[in-house]
Amino acid sequence: MGKLVSAAGMNALVTGASSGIGRGLALRLAHEGARVALVARRVPELEAVAEEIARGGGEARVLPCDVSDRAQATGIAEQVLREFGAVDILVNNAGYGHHRTFLEWPLEDMERMMRVNYFGALYLTKALLPQMVERGRGWLVFLASVAGKLAVPDESAYVASKFALVGLGESLSFELEGAGVHVLNVCPGTIRTDFFDAEALRRMPAVARRMMTDPGPLIDAIMKALRRGQHELVFPRFVGLGSVVRAIAPGFMRWSVRRTVLAAHR
Ligand SMILES: NC(=O)c1ccc[n+]([C@@H]2O[C@H](COP(=O)([O-])OP(=O)(O)OC[C@H]3O[C@@H](n4cnc5c(N)ncnc54)[C@H](OP(=O)(O)O)[C@@H]3O)[C@@H](O)[C@H]2O)c1
C-alpha cells in the first residue's frame, strides 16, 4: 500500500501548475491518464497547460486561485470535489522564494511567503484529506526544498517556510500510516525555472552556473518515488548528504555552508 502503481483513472490537483515543476508534474500525470485540476493565479498560463493536455488526449480543469487566501483555497477544493467527485493525488507545489538578508527583507513579504509556501499547502490538505481518508486512498505530495532540510543564509523566510512544510509532511506521513493515504516530501536542489528572477541569478552567479536547467529528471524522480512508496525524495541525491553531515559533524557543516555560500556569490 502507498505505492502509486499508475496514475491512470485518478483525479489529481496540482498547485503552481502554471509553470516550472508544477507544470511538468501536471503534464506528466495527465500523460499517465490522470484527470488534472490546474491551480495557480495566472489564467492564460494555466489555459495553455490545459490545452497541451487536451491536445495529448487528456483532461484538465483550470482553477484560478491564490493559495495563500484561505477562502479561495477552500473554495477550489470544494469545486474540484463537486466536479471530479474525489481527489486521489494532491500536489502542494505552489511557492516562491527570495534571496535576501533578514534585515533587508520586508516583514510583509516574510508573512506572505509563509502564507503561500506553507499555509497554501495546509489549507488544501485540510480540505482534501478527509475524503482521501474516507475512501482509504490518496497521495499527498509536498514540494519542499533542500532548504527545508538544511538552513542557508540569505534565505531565512524561505527556509522557515520549507522547514515548516517538511515538518507537516513528515508528521502527517506517520499519522496517516494505515489510513491508505501516502505522503511524499520532495526536497529538490536548484533548478532553473521562473522561481529564479534576474535579481536572484545576479546575487548567486556560481549557483546559477551549476543549476539543473530542465525539471524533467526531477519529474521522473518524483514519479519513481511515488511508485516505490517513498516518503522523502531529496534530488539530486547527493544534496541529501548535507543533513547527514550536519547531524554527525555540525561544526564542519557550518564551516562548509559558509564556504559554499561565499563561493556562490563569486
Ligand atoms: N526551482 C528550484 O530550484 C526549486 C528548488 C527547490 C524547491 N522548489 C519549489 O518548487 C516549487 C515550484 O517552483 P518552480 O521552480 O517550479 O517555480 P515557478 O516556475 O516559479 O513556479 C511556481 C508556481 O507557483 C505558483 N504560485 C506562486 N504563488 C502562488 C499563489 N499565491 N497562489 C497560487 N499559485 C502560486 C506560480 O503560479 P502563478 O504565478 O500563476 O500563481 C507557479 O505556477 C516551489 O514551491 C519552490 O519553492 C523549487
Describe this protein's structure.
The protein has a seven-stranded parallel β-sheet with strand order 3-2-1-4-5-6-7, with helices on both faces. About 40% of the residues are buried. It has helices spanning about 20-30, 45-55, 70-85, 105-135, 155-175, 200-205, 205-210, 215-230, 240-250, 250-265, and strands at about 10-15, 35-40, 60-65, 90, 140-145, 180-190, 230-235. The chain is an alpha/beta fold and about 270 residues long. About 50% of the residues lie in helices and about 15% in strands. The protein has one domain: Rossmann fold. The chain has ten helices and seven strands. The site of NADP nicotinamide-adenine-dinucleotide phosphate has 29 residues, from α1.
Distance between the termini: 48 Å
* CATH topology heading: Rossmann fold
Structural domains: how many = 1
Order of strands across the widest beta sheet? Answer: 3-2-1-4-5-6-7
User: What about the largest sheet?
Assistant: 7 strands, parallel
Range of strand content: 5-15%
Small molecules held by this entry: NADP nicotinamide-adenine-dinucleotide phosphate
Uncertain spans: none
CATH homologous superfamily descriptor: NAD(P)-binding Rossmann-like Domain
Classify the helix fraction into a percent range: 40-55%
Rg from alpha-carbon coordinates:
18 Å
Instruction: Quickly give the CATH architecture.
Output: 3-Layer(aba) Sandwich
SS field, number of helical segments? 10
Class from helix and strand fractions: alpha/beta
* C-alpha geometry: globular
Determine the mean pLDDT.
Answer: 95
Report the strand count: 7
| SSE ordering | EHEHEHEHEHEHHHEHH
CATH class: Alpha Beta
